[in-house]
Amino acid sequence: MTKNINLSRILEGRTYAVLGFEAETSAYAQKLRKMGFVEGTQITLAPIKISDPMIFEIRGSRVALRRNEADQIKVEEL
Prior knowledge:
This protein is of the alpha+beta class. The chain has 2 helices and 6 strands; from the N terminus they run ββαβββαβ.
């Protein structure tokens, strides 16, 4: 099981849980929390063949994030 990796490094077909953010108190972290990126929430890489932006499935929705944005989010594999 992978521990504490950046969201930009997840693999398709696997499920992860959000752990937190590189800068927990940043305005960007607050924005992501409002979009559903809260601790414990499951997230997967959508099966879409583009590398930037990356498309994630979280809470029944698809969210596109640039790779450098996804670098700010910490996850762990379930």
